C-alpha cells in the first residue's frame, strides 16, 4: 500500500503488519494489532529476530530535513504508542514515541544498533504531543513539544554511515507491545528541508 500526503515531498509505503493506514482532512491514522512492537531486547541474543509493528515510511530527499507531526494515541495498555520512525537497516532504526510508559503518557525514544536501547524523556499531560525528527549528514535529532512552537531537546545520535543515513526511510508507526491494539493519529504534519537552528534553545 502506498500513500501520498500533500505535506510531504515523498510517497509513503506500508511495512510490517497490516495497519489500515488512511489519510483524510490532514490526519493520518494507523492501527497496531495486539502484541505488535518494533524492538530487539538488549538482554536477548543477537540473532533473535526483531519484533514487528506497522510502519508507513518513505525516502526523504537528500540533505537536511525535519519531519514534524502532532501525535495522538489511544493509550490503553502499557507501552501503547504513536511513533515517528527512522530506518537505515534491518537492525539500525530509531523511534520517537508518545508512549504509555508504563502508566503515564511519556515521550520515549529507542535507538537500535543490533539491539535496542530504551529511554524516557518527559511526561505529557494529555494524549497528544508534537514530535520532530531531524537529520544532517549521519546525525539525527529528536525533539518534542507541547504546543508546536517551543521544542524540547530529547536526544541526538548517529545511525549507520553517511550513505545509509542519507537514504533513510522516515515516517510513522503504531505499537501495542503488551496490549490488544492501539490507534495512532498524526496531524499538523510538516516537512522542512533544514536542520534546526539550535538543538537546545527551543527553536
Automatic annotation (TrEMBL):
The lineage's top-level taxon is Bacteria
The record's annotation in Pfam families points to:
DUF1349
**Name of the featured protein:** DUF1349 domain-containing protein
